[in-house]
Every structure is written in C-alpha cells, then in structure tokens.
Amino acid sequence: MKVLFVSNDPTIFNATSAARARMRTYAALVEELHILSIARADARETHEGNLHLYPVHTWKIFRIRELAKRVHALILERGIEVVSAQDPFEHGLAALRAAQGTSVKLHIQVHTDFLSPWFINSGNWRSPRVRMPLLNRWRRRIADRVLPRANGIRVVSERVKASLIARYGTRTPEPSVIPVAVDPTVPPPARLPAHPSFTFALISVGRLEPEKRVEDILAALSLVIPHYPMAGLFVAGAGSERGKLERMTRRLGLANNVIFLGDRPDARALMASAQAFIQTSAYEGYGRTLIEAALAKVPIITTDVGIVGEVFKGYEDVLAVPVADPTALSLAIVGFIEDVAVRHELPMRAEVSARTHLAEAGDIPTRVCADLLRAMDGNSNS
Q: Is 153 found in the same domain as 121?
C-alpha cells in the first residue's frame, strides 16, 4: 500500500522528534509512506528507506492551493493509493482537491471536536470571554464539504464519532475510533520551581491558545485564594495567549500565586510533583494530557471534554466541571484542598482507567494502517 499523509505537524522534519519516530513506525507497515507538511524555511526534503518527507514552504494564504498541487503531483508520480489528511479543514480540502480526477482513496483523520458549540463560542455570562478564531466557522463549513466525500474517517474518541453521526448520518462512512498514541512510560518526578507563596500547587500543561481557556483557571483562583492563600498555579506551555494571561494574572492580584514556566519538555515529570492537575479546555478531540496526568497519579480537575465520560468518569476518576464555569472550577479546587481522602482515591482509580484504556487501544499504527486499507476498499460518498 502506497500512502500519502497531508500532515499538520512540522516537527516530523526533526530527525529526533517523537513525531518522526511515529512516522517511522507507520512506514514499517506499508510499502511506501510519503508525507507533506507546511514547514519552516530550513526544513529539507528527506528520504529514509520507504519514508519520504516533503516540506512545503508557502504563505498561509496560498497553503491549500500549494498543498493540493504537491499532493496531486505525488499521486501521479508515485502511484499513491490512499491519501490521509490530518484534519478535515485546510489539509482535508487540499487532499480532496488533489484526489479529484484520480483513483486515489481519501481518508480523513478528525482529532478535534469541531462540532462542539465551544469550537466557535467565546464565553458566557459566568466566564471570561475568550476570542475564538473566526476561521473556525469557515473550518466547520469546509468539514461539511470534505467529510461526506471521504472513503474512510478516523476519529480519536467516541465523543467525536457521536457528533459526526448526529450531523452527517449515513452521508459519511462510519467513523473508526482509534485513540491517540500515548507513551505509558512514566518519567521520574521532577521538582517544581520554588514557590514560597503557596504550598498547594496546581499545574496546567498545554498550549496557551484560546481553546485551552486558561483564563478560567485564573478566574477560579481569584475566588479560591482569598480563603485558601496557600493555593497556586504553575502554567507549563507556550502560545499566543501568554501575554494576555500574564496581564490578567496581574490584574487579578495573582502575581504571587501564578508562575508561567514556558514550554517545558519535562512537563510530564513536573505533573507528579503537583497537588493537582487542572485542564480547562473548551473542547478536545481526545485529551492526551489527561492520560499523562493519570499515569503520573496526580489528582485531576478537568472540563467535560474529549475522553471524559469515555475513559474517565466524573467523581470516580476525576473532578469534571462544565466548560467556561470558573465557579465550578473553584469548588473543585477547594474540594481537593479540603478532602485529602478524595485527593488520594481518585488518582488511583484514574490510573487504572488510563492503563486499561491504553491496553484496549492496542497498537495504534497497526490500527490506523488497517483503517487505511478499509478506506481503499470503500466507495466514495460524493
């Protein structure tokens, strides 16, 4: 089977990255694996045995056109049999355009819960308003065009599968639920930086982008700290929202209780040294950091997104709260501060649930390749 991925991960061009390692695993399972991705200017075309990497350098406004052009050329040149796009948006549209007029099969991967109302909503009366990208409305319309014309669809959670079936019914192939691969190895704990202002440490790990709604954690802390001044937050991650979040921290008088760590490659190791992990995403397709936190045996507070309800049960494995509800978050934080027994019991259950889930997920690359084969046998719904 000759496969082409239209990727949204430029780290594949780093020979030592985790993404490159995953691609080598996929390549070992197929005859040829070709991958195109938008990349930095210094990325170069690379060939490792049957793994072929092609960087695309172009302005964002021309991205879809250039990707489609390059994908179409590779389909014809290398006899590609199935093209798999890493999202149903820009990359999916480029793959769809490239496949037109050829016999190649189209496979779409959906890693984002783009049908969640929070994909386009900015907030409510209970929460800070977080400006979501205007492109998200356009992306939802693009997905409406791309997905019904796919031969196969892979989603990463039952939540996403249910949303696609509710919207598209039989107009699309039945999605295959194949989770995200997570390394079950738990690194040794790493010490958090000194924090003399607080002794109950929360940690948030992830990109500082609007959909992560870190603003809600800050708003919740402003309710908690007047009563529990020992509480504080470490924020591990980088992104476009950092400056805004730092200003909000100062405005709420939380400068002594919130520490921004930046992008930390040892984030998984830091989790185990915190008293609780907190995630406030507006939406998640999966939620890799929830699995990582559970494996680290740290108590978890999370919004009801991604694999919450599927892998982790609220009030059995984790404390789950509604999206954009700082008051509910503050109550969950206080719950962990005050109830030591719950803080010990929930992580033990969450770890069992996480390891059971990973065992049941099996070999992800093998399952994805089997899904590509199913797409090759499927008929287009266009």
A: yes
CATH code of 327's domain: 3.40.50.2000
- Residue 139: inside a domain, yes or no? yes
127: tokens are 């929460």
Contacts of 150 (CB under 8 A, 6+ apart): 92, 106, 107, 108, 172, 173, 375, 380, 381
Contact 282, 323 (CB under 8 A): yes
| Digit-coded pLDDT (tens) for 244-280 | 999 999 999 999 999 999 999 999 999 999 999 999 9
Range of the domain at 172: 2-183+361-377
Distance CA(51)–CA(104), nearest Å, equals: 19
Segment (H or E) for 369: helix 364-377
Cα 221 from Cα 132, distance rounded (Å): 23
Whether residue 140 sits in one domain with residue 43: yes
Statement to judge: residues 237 and 281 lie in one domain: yes
pTM for the model: 0.92
CB 57 within 8 A of CB 67: no
Domain-embedded: residue 191: no
